[in-house]
Design a protein that fits this description.
Elements: E1 3-5, E2 17-21, H1 26-31, H2 42-50, H3 59-68, E3 71-75, E4 77-81, E5 91-95, H4 98-102, E6 110-114, H5 116-126, E7 133-137, H6 149-156, H7 160-163
Parallel strand pairs: 2-3, 2-6, 6-7
Antiparallel strand pairs: 1-4, 4-5
């Protein structure tokens, strides 16, 4: 089975909130961009949380808007094997060097995990990091249908306090 790999981090010295997914799905890998599946709610959720129409923008403009708002993106997993896109199918995980990245982000206040798999892998690495709040968010994936968009958004809105 082919190994799948994460993208490079989207961060800069002004990143205050780092959002970590698990590993890009098939649609994202094919498009070479974060959260490319049309039913993934990531851009709608984050856009609503920061008060910007992210879902309406072209991908480069989305990334610029994130940077302008102090938000970075990456994944907890550097590479793994996985048929399809479901996190439950992820095997043979190699984690990203999260602590190494965190050390390069002087303004970082919060690391938010987009989904349970990202949280399970990322929190294990970052448990001892001081001065940064670790936040578990419900997955924006269309596979996580247990919560409505509104219920997810209520939790995603908590990111606002780290961006002021």
């Amino acid at each position: 089975m082919e190994r799948k790999a994460s993208f490079t981090p989207v961060v800069d010295e002004g990143t205050r909130v780092l959002i970590l997914g698990s590993l890009p799905g098939e649609a994202s890998l094919a498009a070479a961009r974060y959260y490319a599946h049309p039913r993934n709610q990531f851009w709608r959720l984050l856009g609503a949380a920061i008060g910007e129409p992210l879902a309406d923008l072209e991908y480069p403009a989305r990334l610029e808007m994130l940077r302008n708002n102090g938000i970075g993106l990456w994944d907890s997993i550097a590479s793994a094997t996985r048929p399809g896109s479901l996190d439950t199918a992820i095997r043979d995980v190699q984690a990203n060097a999260l602590e190494t990245l965190v050390d390069t982000l002087p303004m970082l206040r919060c690391i938010a995990f987009n989904g349970a798999k990202s949280a399970a892998i990322g929190m294990a690495q970052l448990d001892g990091v001081k001065g940064i709040e670790l936040v578990r968010l419900p997955s924006s994936s269309p596979a996580h249908a247990a919560l409505t968009f509104e219920a997810k958004l209520e939790q995603w809105m908590n990111l606002r306090k780290f961006l002021r």
